[in-house]
Amino acid sequence: MKSTWPLIIAAAVIIVVLVFLSSTGKKAPFIPHDNIHSAITTPEVCVACHAPGKQAPLKANHPPKEQCLICHKVQKS
How far apart are CA 1 and CA 61, in angstroms? Predict the structure, then answer.
């Protein structure tokens, strides 16, 4: 019977490497804790200022723009 320890160790190493790589990426900035952003509850609210031609448009290379609250979290005071 072959030992399963090498397989278990290899799987553990792969998991550790994947977790490390996923945690070292660039983090999305927090949603500011101010009067302007106090009513942010849905991505549609963000578009009022962050759509093209608005007050603070997003860069062209910004990831999917309809998923704001997946990456950006509200900053706690």
Answer: 53
**To 10 degrees, the CA torsion angle through 12, 13, 17, 18?**
-40
pLDDT in tens, 48-72: 899 899 999 998 888 887 788 888 8
- For the entire predicted model, the pTM comes to 0.57
Token look-up 């990831």 returns: 63
Q: How many CB atoms lie within 10 A of CB 48?
A: 10
* Total tally of structural domains belonging to the chain: 1
Is 76 part of any domain?
Answer: no
With respect to residue 50, please indicate whether it lies within any of the assigned structural domains.
yes
